[in-house]
Structures are given as structure tokens and as C-alpha cells.
Design brief:
Blueprint lengths: L17 H4 L14 E7 L9 E6 L2 H12 L4 E5 L16 E12 L5 E17 L6 E7 L7 H20 L5 H9 L3 H11 L4 H9 L3 H30 L7 H16 L2 H18 L4 H15 L8 H13 L12 H11 L4 H16 L7 E5 L6 H12 L3 E5 L7 H4 L12 H9 L5 E5 L12 H8 L8 E2 L6 E2 L5 E6 L7 H5 L1 E5 L5 H19 L7 E3 L1 H11 L6 H20 L5 E3 L4 H5 L7 H5 L5 E8 L2 E13 L4 E4 L4 H16 L1 H4 L4 H4 L1 E6 L13 H13 L7 E3 L2 E2 L5 E2 L4 H10 L4 E5 L11 H6 L1 E5 L2 H8 L4 H13 L11
Parallel strand pairs: 1-3, 7-12, 7-13, 8-9, 9-12, 14-15, 18-19, 20-23, 23-24
Antiparallel strand pairs: 1-6, 2-5, 3-4, 4-5, 5-6, 10-11, 16-17, 17-19, 21-22
Helix pairs in contact: 3-5, 3-7, 5-7, 7-8, 9-10, 9-11, 10-11, 12-13, 12-14, 19-20, 19-21, 24-27, 27-30
């Protein structure tokens, strides 16, 4: 390692790099006394008298020292550090005995590396350290080489030469010049130093030889190191001889492993290490409290592992399998400590509104408290994105005092993702259920299976079918993961699933879950959520403190009304975050210490409003009606536009309508024809007129029967020439007899109408049972009108006189009055 050794420094004043400072030329430096030496600390190199070695120097003080020594034609003192990692060695970090070395040559390589070729001359001992130099300088005492010669020294000299030649013969690629020097050297001390410098021993062992002045003791020490090295080299030759017979082109990797094992066996390390590993695994199996069947299998696999070679292809696979068995939580979980009042407090603190959902969760926890060993239902939270499904699961876990772990099922299309791969496959792992339990560290954790409606299926099986066993309380007490191949009890786990819609969830899987619907929030609920949770969370994320940014209630209401139109609150939180970031920029620049944001400031921060009164823009003329639709992200308003032209009675449908919605248009047209006399329409008109029905947002597919009433009103308005009330939306399926049939998603649709600024909603009379689900705020702001047939719909939507129609159109264009929340006439 001589050519790669680098030097330390003695905590002297750092004057910079010698290549730039040029200390060697400073006349102010005091001269080096005759009984002193420039000291160069060495990390791993011990230089013996008589040896010539190249040394890399890299630290500034060492470069300055070497340059000074070359220019002044002075020797240097090579001194070994006690610890090679020390970057700035002090006197205590260096040995006191070193070697005086003359610098034969100083070379600076093209890569700016400094190399000095040194020749050891004589041992020395440090007496004291001298100050005032930009490099280490010490007063020394030179140590003369003993010239004793007697029979004892001569005998050891002969023995040392013989052993050295044996070692050189066994060493690979030994230079012939070195063998010649060993054969011809006449100095006993010189031979001991030479051998200590060339054999493979530690720097500290070389330093001990350097510090040994007595020849007999020095020769004995070197002989001891030679015997050890000779034994290792002989064993290496024997290992090579034994393994060479097994050598083949296909066994190269095996040969290397066998050599390593043989070396460890000879040193007594391999078997002891393997035995310790086996014993550690045995203790882990005993401590895991496994069931009897699992423990028997684990011990059987451990016995196989103990007799298996590390070179075996199964070695790492079996070790990983044993790790999984020992790290899974097999022991029963602690009993739940459920405080119903505290659980309700946690739910109220974490979520605003959702009273029915919270009540069902409290009932779930109460039953769990009274019957801890019972098989509770699998709850499935269904609702639009951003309404708090995942956070409800976290709140339940907090209320139960159980670990919470989440597994996302979105995009999973391989059954093995649920059940795991068989461990014979390369890279096999258990399924996400067992992996989640391992992460949770408890067999009684609360596990949320997120986005269960987005499971896929493919050539690798149907993962939803694999979930049937996981979510069945009667079967999951012996769930078998393919990787483990052993039963694992999931009956103490609490599973909660989430979904945006249930249409894609297979029937058998849906049958195992209790569905809890989480509808969208009203504007008032969003305002409360923003004030209680979202602003605080955005303050933390953007590094703001309380009081630095003040967002008024009017600003929050404007954000909800003009910049977001969603069932949940994710987009609302993003917009609040944008307001906070704008304030954070000004505060970070030091422009202001406090910012108040009102509704009038939003245009400069968020830009112009993203939503306006679409109802006012789209209605106000015959042939246009406002319907209500349900989507996976909440309710929405749907405009139905109808137009007529001279033709042959053809019906044209546009707007990406599905088959069911197309049939609704045809049924509506048939109803209009049967009511032609009521609207004052001549029967021959239909045969001479082409009808075009369009539903805007044509890039979005639309389907379902609930727009039937709106389709009928739009067509009736078109042919009767009467304008539909612009403040009214409607939903309901129609029959050919003119009956209005019930539909789903009433709450979401009513909330969508309220968000759009409408004042009246027509609902099927048979949906009156859904009235309780509608929030009180929506019932107060909207006039909910229940209709039995299309005649009721006509009476409620189309004024009978032109004056009334003009008045209705004017009211819509100016918007509902602020003091008339219900819009009742």
C-alpha cells in the first residue's frame, strides 16, 4: 500500500495549499535544527531502513514539508499514525518511533498527484515537537543499529532466511530480484527489516518490529509473523489442490464458494457463524408463538436450512421464507379498549357532518365492545372522491386503539397480488394482505382496502375472487397465502373497504360488505370543513403560522362557489393552498408580516372564476330544460337542448348518449306526440319536422334513464313554443303512460342543483322516502316538488302565458333574489 498512502497533519496553522502558497521559498521560516526532522505522518505505511518505496502525498502540510526537504536537501521523518482514519493527527495520534528517510526523487504527475521516492536510512525516536513551522517538525534521537553478533543471532539469521525463502516461493508472482536480495543480504537486522516490510502483515505489526531494537527479540518477532503467514499460504495451496479436482467450466462460481468455505472452516469461522444463525432462527421461531401446525412446518424448514449449502439455489429462498414466518404476528392481539364517547369525540374532531355515517360507525364499535369475539360486518364506504372515506378508516383505528394499515387495490389485476406467489418462483412474495399485516405488526390491525371498485382481471386470474375468502368472516380464520402455504387467522382483523361506485364490484363480493354511502358536502359544510381543517393543514404544509394569512369567510365562500364545483373538498383544499402559497411568497420576501384575503382579492390570486351561472346562459328559450345526473364524483346538472327543422320526421341524437338515454329520448318524443292536442300541436307537424336533441359536453359519455322527464319537457317546450322555468331542474324516468318513475342518487343530484344556483327541483313522488337523506341546508334553500306524472312536470315548469314566460326568463337572467332562498312562487 506504499504507493497509495496519504499523510496527516498535526493541527498546525493551515496556510493553504503548498502548490499555491510556496512556503518552501519563504526566507522568514526558521532553519531546521540539526537534531530535528521534518515529520511526514503516514496512514498505513511503515518504512524500514534500507527500503526504497514511492509514497503518494496529498495534504497541504505534507506537500509543503516534502518540497522544503527537497529544496534544502534535508531528510524527513516517516511516522505511522495510530489510527489511519484521523485526518488531522496530533502528537498523541502518532507513534514515537519512525524512520529517517532521504528523498531520492520528487514527481508531480499530470493528474496533480505528488509522489516522492524515499529511502529509509535509520530509526529515530521523537523527543519533542517544535513550533513555528507550517508543517510538523520534531526534535529527534537517532537510534543506531546494533552490531552484535553471536551464535544465537546467527542461528536465527539462518532460520529467518530459510523461512523467508519458503514464504517467497509460496507467494504468487514474487520478483526474482527480491529472492536474490534475501539470499545475499548479510545483516541480521537488515534481513529482519526487509522481511517485515514485504510480507503481508498489519501496519501495527510492522510498527512493533520497527520499535524493536534488540536483534534477538526482533528476529523472534519476525519469525513468529513468518510462521503464521507460511501456515496460511500452505493451507491456501492445499485448498487449491483439493478444489482443483472439482474444477470445470460450469463450476467456476462453485469453486470460489468452496474456497471461501474451506478458508472459513480452517479458521473456525464458517461453521460457528452458521450455527449462530441457526440458533438465532430457532429462538425466533420459539418466541413467535406460532400455532402448532405452523411451528412444526417452521422447524422442519429450519432443519433443512441447517444442512443446506450456501451455494445451493434454495439457500436464500428458504432463508427469506423463514424470515417471513418469524416476523409475522402469530400471537393473538390484545383485547380492544373501546370508549364509545371517546370514539364519537374522535369522529367529530376528525370529520364535520356525516352524522348518519358516524352513527353507524358508533354502532359498529358498540357491537364490537359488547361482543369482541363476534364476526362484525365488513364496512364499505362508497362515495365521490375527497369526501373522507380513507380518513374515516383512520379515525376508527384511533377509536379502537388498533394499528392502521392501508392497501391500495387500484389497478390490481393478478390474483397472486392478493394470495401471493408460490415460493418456488424467483422473487416470490406473499400477497398484499399478509404484507400489510407484517407492516402493521399485529394480527388485530384495521386494514383498509382502498379503491375496491378498481380491481381488474386478466390472464392471471380474478383478484376479486381471491378477496371473497379474505372478506368472509366465516372463512378467513384459516386464510392460506400461496407463499406461506400455511393457514393464517384473519378473523381478528377489521377490514374496511372504499369505492367510488359499486357498479364494477362483483355481486358476490358486494354481498359480503355492508354498504355505507358518503354523499357530497353542501356549501355550508364545505365552509365549515375549510375553517376547521383545510386552512390549518395548508398553513402547516406552507410553513405559515396562525395570524400570518387571514382568509375571510366571504373569500372561502367565493372559492367554493366560483372556483370549485365538486362533491368532496380536495379541489377546495388545493385552491386554499394556492392562496396560502401566494401569501407565503410575500411574507418570505419580507414585504409584509400579515396578509388578509377577501373575496375581491381572489381574481388576482386564482384568476377569474372557473364557474358561472350556466343555467342563465343556457336556458331562456323554448326547447331547453335542465336535468340532473349522477356521476362517480357526485351529482351534476345536465342540459337538454332540442331543435326542430323542416324535414321528414327524423330524430337526430348527439352528445355521446348511451343506449338507455337514447331510448329515453324516443319515449319522450312518443309522449309529446300523444299529448299533441294538449300543447296545441297539429299531428301532421311531426311528419314534416326533423328533431335534433343534443346534450352538451359531447366528449363525455352519458347514459341512464333518469333524464326522461327533462327530455320530455325539452321536447314539449320546443313544440309548444313555451319557455321552461330557468330556476328549475328535474330528474325521473318516464313510462309510455306518462308516469314518472323513481331514480337513484337523489341526494347527490339535489346538492348539484344547489351548487348550480337553482331554486326548484322536481323529483319523482316515489322518491319521497329519500327526503331524509337530503341535508337540512338543501331543504331550506331549495323547493323540492314531487311529481307523479308528466302533466305535473308541465304544470311546474312551463308557464301558461307568454307574460309569465317572459317574467320567468327575466328572473333567471338576473339570478335568484338574495332574500328568497327557496324561490317559491
Amino acid at each position: 500500500m506504499a504507493s497509495t498512502d496519504s499523510e496527516g497533519k498535526l493541527a498546525l496553522t493551515n496556510h493553504g495549499d503548498a502548490r499555491n502558497a510556496g512556503f518552501a521559498h519563504e526566507p522568514s521560516l526558521p532553519a531546521i535544527p540539526g537534531d530535528a526532522l521534518i515529520i511526514v505522518p503516514m496512514r498505513n505505511l511503515v518504512l524500514f531502513p534500507g527500503m526504497i518505496v514511492p509514497v503518494n502525498i496529498g495534504r497541504p502540510e505534507s506537500i509543503v514539508a516534502a518540497q522544503r526537504a527537497v529544496q534544502a536537501d534535508l531528510p524527513v521523518g516517516m511516522l505511522l499514525q495510530r489510527t489511519a482514519e484521523v485526518e488531522t493527527p496530533t502528537a498523541d495520534d502518532l507513534y514515537t518511533v519512525g524512520t529517517v528517510a532521504g528523498i531520492l526523487r520528487y514527481v508531480t504527475l499530470p493528474d496533480d498527484t505528488h509522489v516522492v521516492v524515499c529511502q529509509g536510512q535509520q530509526r529515530f525516536r521523537i523527543r519533542n515537537w517544535l513550533a513555528g513551522y507550517p508543517f510538523p517538525v520534531a526534535g529527534i534521537e537517532r537510534i543506531d543499529e546494533p552490531d552484535d553478533s553471536d551464535n544465537e543471532i546467527e542461528a536465527r539469521f539462518i532460520r529467518l532466511r530459510e523461512r523467508a525463502l519458503e514464504v517467497l516461493e509460496l507467494m504468487p508472482q514474487t520478483p526474482s530480484e527480491l529472492v536474490h536480495v534475501v539470499k545475499t543480504i548479510a545483516s541480521p537486522g537488515g534481513l529482519a527489516d526487509l522481511v517485515a516490510g514485504v510480507i503481508d502483515i498489519k501496519p501495527a505489526e510492522r510498527q512493533s518490529v520497527l520499535e524493536t531494537i534488540d536483534l534477538v527479540e526482533r528476529q523472534d518477532r519476525v519469525l513468529d509473523y513468518l510462521f503464521k503467514r507460511l501456515e496460511v499460504l500452505r493451507l491456501s495451496r492445499e485448498i487449491d489442490a483439493r478444489t482443483q479436482a472439482k474444477m470445470s467450466e460450469q463450476q467456476r462460481e462453485y469453486l470460489l464458494r468452496e474456497q471461501l468455505k474451506s478458508i472459513q472452516r480452517e479458521l473456525g469461522e464458517g461453521e460457528a457463524g452458521n450455527a449462530a444463525e441457526i440458533e438465532a432462527l430457532r429462538k425466533e421461531i420459539e418466541a413467535a408463538q406460532m400455532p402448532e401446525e405452523v411451528a412444526a412446518q417452521a422447524k422442519k424448514e429450519l432443519k433443512r436450512f441447517a444442512h443446506m449449502s450456501e451455494a445451493s439455489a434454495e439457500y436464500s429462498m428458504l432463508r427469506t421464507y423463514l424470515d417471513w414466518l418469524t416476523e409475522l404476528p402469530w400471537k393473538p392481539p390484545e383485547p380492544d379498549s373501546i370508549d364509545i364517547d371517546e370514539a364519537r369525540r374522535i369522529l367529530d374532531a376528525d370529520h364535520f357532518g356525516l352524522d348518519k355515517v358516524k352513527q353507524r360507525i358508533v354502532e359498529f364499535l358498540a357491537v364490537r365492545k359488547l361482543n369482541p369475539d363476534g364476526h362484525g360486518p365488513i364496512l364499505c364506504f362508497v362515495g365521490p372522491p375527497g369526501v373522507g372515506k380513507t380518513s374515516l378508516g383512520q379515525s376508527i383505528a384511533r377509536a379502537l386503539g388498533r394499528p392502521f394499515v392501508r392497501a391500495s387495490l387500484g389497478g390490481v389485476h393478478d390474483e397472486a397480488e392478493i394470495r401471493g406467489h408460490r415460493r418456488t418462483y424467483i422473487g416470490a412474495l406473499p400477497g398484499i394482505v399478509i404484507q400489510a399485516i407484517r407492516r402493521a405488526g399485529s394480527r388485530g390491525a384495521l386494514m383498509m382496502l382502498d379503491e375496491i371498485d378498481k380491481l381488474g382481471s386478466g390472464i392471471h386470474g380474478d383478484p376479486s375472487s381471491a378477496l371473497l375468502e379474505v372478506l368472509d368472516p366465516e372463512q378467513n380464520n384459516s386464510f392460506r397465502d400461496n407463499y406461506l402455504g400455511l393457514p393464517f387467522d384473519l378473523s381478528r382483523m377489521i377490514f374496511i373497504t372504499t369505492a367510488n361506485l359499486l357498479d364494477t364490484v362483483p355481486g358476490p363480493l358486494r354481498d359480503r360488505m355492508e354498504i355505507i354511502h358518503l354523499p357530497g358536502y353542501t356549501q355550508e359544510e364545505k365552509l365549515q370543513i375549510a375553517q376547521r381543517y383545510l386552512i390549518k393543514r395548508q398553513f402547516e404544509q406552507n410553513g405559515l403560522k396562525d395570524g400570518q394569512v387571514d382568509i375571510s369567510v366571504a373569500a372561502l365562500s367565493a372559492i367554493i362557489r366560483d372556483y370549485t364545483r365538486e362533491a368532496g373538498v380536495r379541489s377546495l383544499e388545493r385552491q386554499i393552498g394556492a392562496v396560502c402559497r401566494r401569501g407565503a411568497v410575500r411574507i418570505a420576501r419580507g414585504e409584509v408580516e400579515h396578509i388578509s384575503v377577501d373575496a375581491g382579492d381572489l381574481a388576482g390570486i386564482l384568476g377569474p372564476g372557473k364557474f358561472d351561472n350556466e343555467v342563465a346562459l343556457r336556458t331562456g328559450m323554448p326547447g331547453v330544460a335542465t336535468g340532473l345526473a349522477w356521476t362517480p364524483v357526485g351529482g351534476d346538472i345536465l342540459f337538454i337542448e332540442a331543435s326542430r327543422m323542416i324535414g321528414s320526421g327524423k330524430l337526430i341524437l348527439t352528445g355521446q348518449l348511451g343506449d338507455v338515454m337514447k331510448e329515453s329520448v324516443e319515449a319522450a318524443l312518443t309522449l309529446v306526440k300523444t299529448h299533441a292536442e294538449q300543447f296545441g300541436i297539429e299531428a301532421a307537424t311531426f311528419a314534416k319536422t326533423d328533431i335534433h336533441v343534443h346534450v352538451p359536453a359531447g366528449a363525455i359519455p352519458k347514459d341512464g334513464p333518469s333524464a326522461g322527464v327533462a327530455m320530455f319537457i325539452a321536447l314539449a317546450s320546443l313544440f309548444a313554443g313555451r319557455t321552461v322555468r330557468g330556476d328549475t331542474a328535474m330528474t325521473g324516468e318516464i313510462s309510455l303512460r306518462g308516469l314518472v318513475l323513481p331514480v337513484g342518487g337523489i341526494k347527490d343530484k339535489v346538492l348539484a342543483a344547489m351548487r348550480a344556483g337553482l331554486r326548484r327541483v322536481l323529483l319523482p313522488a316515489r322518491n319521497r322516502r329519500d327526503l331524509e337523506e337530503i341535508p337540512p341546508e338543501a331543504r331550506e334553500k331549495l323547493e323540492l316538488i314531487f311529481i307523479d306524472d308528466v302533466d305535473d312536470a308541465v304544470a311546474q315548469t312551463m308557464p301558461r302565458s307568454a307574460a309569465a314566460g317572459a317574467e320567468a326568463g327575466a328572473a333567471e337572467r338576473t339570478g335568484p333574489p338574495a332574500d328568497d332562498a327557496t324561490g317559491k312562487e
